[in-house]
Specification:
alpha+beta; two-stranded antiparallel sheet; 6 helices; seven-stranded mixed β-sheet; disordered N terminus
Amino acid sequence: MILDKNKLKSICVGELLYSTKHFTTIFHQELGKSLEQFANIPVKIIVKRLSNNKVIDILGIKRIEINSNKTSILMFCPTNEKNSIFTHQGSIYKLKLKTLSSGKINEGFEYLKKIVCSGDGMEEKTFYDLPVKVIVIDQKTEKILDYLDIATTLMNDNGSGIFYHCLIDDDRMIAENPGLEKVLDESEKKYASLIRKLMQTRND
C-alpha cells in the first residue's frame, strides 16, 4: 500500500477503539487467550519513515489527556531513557519500555469520555471523532519535542503486544535539515538489527 503524505491524518478515538475490539476477538477466539490477559498487553508507539516504512524509534505511552480546547486526545510518550536501551558494539540488542497496557488505555478513554460528555456536554459522536495524537516529550523535563499522527494499529502474531504506528515525513525533514539524514539512517539500522534479534529469539 502506498501512502499519500498529503492525505495522512491521525486515527480518531472511535477507530482506535474499534481496532482494539477487533484485536480482542482475535486474542480470545483465534489465540485462545483470556480477556483478562488481553487487558495486560503492553501498547507501544512505533515511529517509521514515510519514505521507506522503516522503524526509527519505539516509544512507551506515559499518560493520556485531552487538549485544553477539547479538539484532540493526546498520548504523551517520553523519549527513551538510557536504562531502557541496552547496546552492544553500537547495536541495540534489547529494549525495555515502561508503557500503558491495553486495559489502561481503554480506561483512559472512558474517563475522558465521562469528563467531556457527561461533564461538558460534548456529544459522544464528537468524542469518538476526535483525532488521537502522539506527543513526544523529554523524559526528564517533559518538554514537548514533537507531534505525531497515528497512521494504523497492529497486534503481533502471538498477541504479546499492540503497536500504534506513526509516520514521519523524513524527506521533508531532510530537505529542511540535511544533517538529519545520517541520524535517521543510523537509527533505522539499529532498530532493524534489534527487530531481527527479537524475531530470532522468539523463533528459537
